[in-house]
Design a protein that fits this description.
This protein has about 55 residues and is mainly alpha-helical. It contains two helices and no strands.
Length: about 55
């Protein structure tokens, strides 16, 4: 893993800490999972999908 730093709003860190308390997961793990989810969703939108049928 590569260590990195970034800035969060107070609202974001409060929400992450709340989720952390509820799940027992560290804030860093929650952030990694959220980033993974965002990347997957972005890649799905960016990947052209084959079209079924034709428009006439």
């Amino acid at each position: 893993m590569i260590r990195t730093n970034f800035h969060l709003t107070q609202k974001q860190i409060d929400a992450l800490r709340e989720i952390s308390g509820a799940t027992g997961l560290p804030v860093s793990e929650i952030a990694r999972r959220a980033i993974d989810t965002f990347i997957i969703q972005y890649q799905e939108k960016a990947t052209p999908r084959p079209r079924h049928g034709t428009l006439r």
